[in-house]
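Entry 14. Structure prediction run on the chain below.
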Amino acid sequence: MIKNAGLAGKSKIKNSKFNHMTITASDISKLRTATGAGMMDCKNALEEANGDVDKAAELLRKKGIVKAAKRADKIAAEGTTVVKVSGNTAVVAEVNSETDFVAGSDDFKKLVGEIIDYLLVNKPADLEAAQAGLQDKITALTSKIGEKISLRRFALVDKADSEAFGDYVHMGGKISVLTVLTGTTDSALAKEVAMHAAAAAPKYLKREEVDTTLLEKEKEIAAVQLKAQNKPQNIIDNILKGKMEKFYSEICLLEQPFIKEESQTVQKFVESKGAGTVKQFVRYELGEGIEKQVKNFADEVNEQLK
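Output returned:
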């Protein structure tokens, strides 16, 4: 990462080929505005073009950098989720593309593999650090295929030797789940819980983690409905308790009825197999929370021709 690259104030970047040629922050800004390319790409292109902004823009187009930059504002809602275990470390990630056609390509699948391996080896502190480290690889494929590719999110999880990872990928990457079980090293058992989480879509591990704002909102809605029925307050209080218990059983993994044996909660099922509990889970569903753009075919073709 380059910090304080000399673009502030009136500082200038000297061109090594021409003693009288200087590249100013204004030149770089002008090229960035025209092309949407990154600062360093613009700086390098201007140096190669001896300060000629038009020629630098042409160089960026030839290198495919402008094409990649123009995709930056596109919505990438397709792609895949993936989970991989390596010893006592695992990673779950979502990598997006604009279309499912690209998501099914060998180039995209190869890139996803490289991204996962990078995350496992380098263990970046956050998404920004991961994106910075992977920028060249992602930009290269974006330039090649003319479609935005992005690492949307990832989670790195560590476990102890005495614990078990369970990993499961549903429908070729539409959903990926990782679980960590304590008190057992049975990865098959942990995978069963991961499969349950894929189907039941819990939002939280246990009730203590439920967002208090969400909880109060649920209580308020239920209370208003009950008061409309003219029920006495003591009856309303008892019914509310029951409704909250049901609410927890719907959104908390440990309290959900286990999908293969609904007479037991997930916690009871895990205990019945001699394990401790589910310590952690990560569930990624492809495109979750992304608003997809809907375009007609003609608009899409016209946009590609720009």
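The CA atoms of residues 294 and 300 lie 10 Å apart.
Filed with the rest of this week's runs.
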